[in-house]
Amino acid sequence: MSESIQQLILDTLDTQGSIADTRTLVVPGTSHAATSHDAQLAILGALNSLLSREMVTYETNEVISHALTAEGAQIANEGSHEARVWSVLPLKGQGEPINPGQLKKEVGDETAKVGQGRAFKNGWIGKEGAGLVKLVMPTIFRTGNLSSGEKVLADLRKRKLIAQKKGQWFAVMKGANFSTSIAKPETDLTADMLTSGSWKTSTYKKYNFEAEGIPTSGGALHPLLKVREEIRNNFLEMGFCEMPTQSFVESGFWCFDALFVPQQHPARDLQDTFYLSDPSHSLPPQEAYYNRVKTVHVDGGFGSAGYRAPWQPEESSKLLLRTHTTASSAHMLYKLAAKCRGEDIEDDTKEFTHGAASTKDANDKTTAKVDGFRPAKLFSIDRVFRNETMDATHLAEFHQVEGVVADRNLTLADLIGFMRVFFSKMGIEQVRFKPAYNPYTEPSLEIFAFHPMLNKWVEVGNSGMFRPEMLEPMGFPKDVRVHGWGLSLERPTMIRYGINNIRTLVGHKTSIENIENSPAVMF
Ligand code: PHE
């Protein structure tokens, strides 16, 4: 097909010199001029193939045309909905009125519905008993301006009676290599051509040294992974060790109870937390620790009055998708305190506490021996889950960046100082702190950063000094303080890459092209 169109174009150019309008061509196999959209598309294909061989040049012209939609065509053939309703009804007083059910059968549901309303409005039909009749009026007339002014077209488009179609047609001229023969130039020199000698007379396709070639495809890191790597490096530079955080599923005990989150806390509700149905419950935690945690909740202890609220073992053992990585921090802190509890267990936290001992322990080797405490700086960056309504800035799962520092006699000033260094490493120099509340930290601070691009203060994290009600049941000595903080990985990533809808950062709406093109470092 394409070849015969190509031949037609070349022959027409040969006899006429040029083709002013390709809509005048009569495509082989048809008997009429190529006015349709499809015919012009086929012509375009042929033109492009000839253009690549410089046999022709062409100019593109656009036309806008209108075509009737199915409904429009029906109205054009059978009359408007209201006219069809009118025409099937008997004239008032001259026949049995038609009831609405019957009318539907006669003219179809759509016409009965739309047509009745309009015919009533126009005063063409009326009611007689339970049925409909046409009012005395011998004929109805076509209304409306039959010219195709833009206003009329717009109205018909709005009523979906016509649809706009964009069309193209072309003006064609001879190209530098014009000839009426469409023999393709050779792209390869073959052994056959050499033996037969046809290579001498063949024409060859020119090499295109300008061609850019196919872009090589390669993997690309997602922006979240790039920012994660950068933050991970910041932590490592500051002497932190990465915590294992592979357990997405936790028990209520580790996610909440161990953190002194009361069993009645709203964060534990079904609306906020995803609970597992199978298996739905965890094995019991170590009994002595479980009992200490339970006691500090119900009766208090370690200088605390406790919540004095009922305790349900059931709440403790429920399995859930962790709502924060602080659940993993709690596991690590509990392990870190093993020696303090006097447990002679294989110390698998050693690799996480390779940092120097605290100044106090370094000076006083006996303390370390006596209570077994070793300071630690730990971090994690991993996924958490919350039963959130999704919107432009919230998904039901996201990543938390979390750090904890355990040492003797840390103060709030240490936490604030740490925060300033940590955020300045992320390029955030201006930070402010606001008192806040977490069940597991006291005092607690929300962290705000000034965002120069947004020109406002935005909340970037949450932090605090872990409460004795959490640390002492684990077995930490009284002078050990642990501070911690958490922030989302998505927020700094979105700010960094100028993404304002989280659904374009993760999920099926993500643009792979943007991911491939986004730079690794953006300060
Ligand atoms: N878990 C807190 C959150 O989800 C962050 C945090 C971690 C706060 C550690 C204080 C200490 O927002």
Give an account of the 3D structure.
Its EC number is 6.1.1.20. Residues 375-519 form the Aminoacyl-transfer RNA synthetases class-II family profile domain. InterPro entries: aa-tRNA-synth_II, aa-tRNA-synth_II/BPL/LPL, Phenylalanyl-tRNA_Synthase, PheRS_DBD3. Keywords: Aminoacyl-tRNA synthetase, ATP-binding, Ligase, Nucleotide-binding, Protein biosynthesis. By secondary structure, this protein is an alpha+beta fold. The chain is 34% helix and 20% strand. The chain has three domains: 1-79 and 141-187, Ribosomal Protein S8, Chain: A, domain 1; 81-137, Winged helix-like DNA-binding domain superfamily/Winged helix DNA-binding domain (Arc Repressor Mutant, subunit A, Orthogonal Bundle), CATH 1.10.10.10; 225-517, Bira Bifunctional Protein, Domain 2 (BirA Bifunctional Protein, domain 2). A seven-stranded mixed beta sheet has the order 6-9-10-14-13-12-11, sandwiched between helices. Strands 1-5-2 form a three-stranded antiparallel beta sheet, with helices on both faces. A hairpin with a 2-residue loop joins β3 and β4 (131-134). α5 packs across α6 and α11 packs antiparallel against α17. The two termini are 56 Å apart. Residues 324, 326, 402, 438, 441, 462-464, 484-486 line the site of phenylalanine.
Keywords for this structure?
523 residues; Ribosomal Protein S8, Chain: A, domain 1; BirA Bifunctional Protein, domain 2; seven-stranded mixed beta sheet; 19 helices; 14 strands; binds phenylalanine; phenylalanine-tRNA ligase activity; ligase; aa-tRNA-synth_II/BPL/LPL; ATP-binding; EC 6.1.1.20
